[in-house]
Amino acid sequence: MVRFYFLLLLSILAFSSMLNAKEEDIGGSFKSHEAIYHLNMGQVTSSSKIHNVNGEMHLSVKFVCDGWIVNQNTTIDVTDKNGSQLRNIYRYSTWESKNHETLRFMSKVIINGEEISNYEGKSYIKDGMGKIIFLKPHNKEIDIPVNTLFPMKHFFISLYENKVETFFNYVVFTGEDDQSLNNVSSFSKYDIYEKNKYKIIRSAIYSYNDYSSQPENEIEILVNSKSGVVKKVIFDYLDYQIIGDLRDVQYYNEPEC
Fold it and tell me: Which end of the chain is more exposed for a tag (fewer CB within 10 A), N or C?
């Protein structure tokens, strides 16, 4: 459960600026905003340990003069087969530089009032070298491939190069924990009922060091290709699904740089 909270962010930003021709024009169609999603249970298999979920997710994405700031706060109540309930709180924040060479990240997971994980650090791709530097929960440095993408750069490459009904694969580091270096494979198509207004995008998330044919999880979104707002999202954990429905969106004014 603790590793779903960055996935909606991947989806929203990757396809929110589809009308831009150049990265420097990113502010032209993408609007800094805060979206609120209601979370509930989708399909569930007989082998799933999760019986029901209910919660809310707040996601804010702001363009600032030197990069992008993202904050995500999620509270979700999880009920297992035996009726036991856990309240899960997820907090995730990042700043990614405008040139996409540096990422600062913080994340925290709290279950029933007890903090069970707290990650903080930075990562960079520069001068033919890639590195993650964790400051919490302990000091640790990890070398990463120079083709690793931070979230915003991954979004922009998806925007400029990817075509509908074609698979694309990237190595992405998101910074939500020490297992967040992933291979991400995405496929998109137009919604058959409202072509050119909504797109359906499905992404499979694989651990970078795991070469199995089965992903750790998948995500599917229904996104407005003009506004970039995700109307619906399905987090698919194979044994169960969590569905997020958009309830509200507020826009921020862009900064004067």
Answer: C
pLDDT of 142: 95
Q: What are phi and psi of 204, to 5 degrees?
A: -110, 135
Phi then psi for 23, rounded to 5 degrees? -65, -35
Q: Mind listing the pLDDT tens digit for each residue in 83-117?
A: 899 999 999 999 999 998 999 999 999 999 999 99
Count up the domains in the chain and report the number.
1
Task: Report if residue 256 sits inside a domain.
Answer: no
1 in any annotated domain: no
Is the pLDDT at 194 greater than 70? The verdict is no
Q: In angstroms, rounded to a whole number, what is the distance separating the alpha carbons of residues 107 and 72?
A: 9
Q: Is residue 89 part of a domain?
A: yes
Supply φ then ψ for residue 151, to 5 degrees: -50, -50
pTM score: 0.82
Calculate mean pLDDT across residues 28-35: 75
Give residues with Cβ within 8 angstroms of 99, minimum separation 6. none
Q: What is the pLDDT of residues 118-157, one digit of tens each?
A: 999 999 999 999 999 999 999 999 999 999 999 877 766 6
Give the residue numbers spanning the domain of 208.
7-251
- With respect to residue 257, please indicate whether it lies within any of the assigned structural domains: no
